[in-house]
Amino acid sequence: MPHLKDILIQFAIIIIPVFLYEMLWLSRYHSTSPKQNRLLVGLLSFFNIIICLMYPIEVGKHFGISFSILLLFSAFLYGGRLIGFIVLLSKGVFIYVLYGIHAFKLFPIELIACILPFLIAPMWVGYSKRKKFVLSLIMPTIHHLAIIGLIYFRTIFTDFNYIRNYETILSLIIVLTIITFTMLFHVYIREFLFENAVIRVQMQKSEKLNIVSELAASVAHEVRNPLTVVRGFIQLLENEESRTNREYFKLVLTELDRAENIITDYLNIAKHQIEESKLISLTDQLHEVTTIMSSFASLQGVFLQVNVDENLYIIGDRTKIKQAIMNILKNGVEAIQETKGYIKIDACLEEINEKKYVKIIVKDNGVGMSKEQLERLGEPFYSLKEKGTGLGLMVTFSIIEAHKGKIEYLSDNGKGTEVHVLLPAVELEEGNNNDSV
Question: Histidine kinase domain: which residues (predicted)?
């Protein structure tokens, strides 16, 4: 029977890199939701594979077995195909250096077992938890079946006495079963820690938003009242003054309007929750917004291309959704500094993790943004415009999140920007898309 101490050592070797990854990467400060650090995943996987191979579990007299295959799976799933392939080759080199050419008899089995992780690696992030847990049981099972097949072949066709000891067979079954459930636990811990990291980032954003909201609620109304009075008297004086001073009055009114817009943004942050939930035809909403924005875009020499599917519906606040889309389009127009620019708006229905979403893509050929600028988007008072307040995009983010949606910016300097917005879709039965929109 295998020693419990050896099994526990192998188990610890598999779990330790998960917590090291959390300590070295996930627990660091992230301004946006953290992404997988593929290189770190690969390094930790390879380092712990070496330790696994140095302390194998002895199963009978003929061979030892380790949990290292699980780290290979992890390298493919969380590091990507390239990292997984590099770790696989590195493991092969290390086996050759440590045990010689005769140790390669089990390496083809590992190649077979890694086919499934290799195939599903690009889609792994988008899988639901349940699907990940099921696959985490299937992957080691394929590996174990290949090992059992090799033992059966060796016993029947080459060496009848290769493994005839029932105690050895029982030990092998116990170890393989433990390996299977260790993989499940490994994936569970990884997903749990990653979710915690995402929640931490959301809490940090929420705290910032609450501070701004409290400030907005306490100041905005008090400032707006005197501004309204000043604006009224300026308009009265404008009618009585000669033409020489009217330009000054016009400038004062423009700046008052700008102050009013800033206060409105503050109030929108203070009321970041949905005020009304109604059925919205996003198809009609997008056409309406693009019609409104087309004149503003034309003045800037920007052409709008609209490609929106029919019958796109969501539940939410019509006014706030309109404001969010207009903010995104306005930013896109202002990012185009040359004439003959374009903004392309696409919207369609998309299924993600068995849930239907309306996906809106707004693409421009503007100046683009650097990685550092992308990470700070949505922060209070952060703006890339000379006269920007840094509140408009923050309001947009809060509106989309309040509608249980997601917004993502993709950009490179000089290559334009893409904005991806996902909003939970509502499917209507035929004949039910009436005037309740």
Answer: 218-427
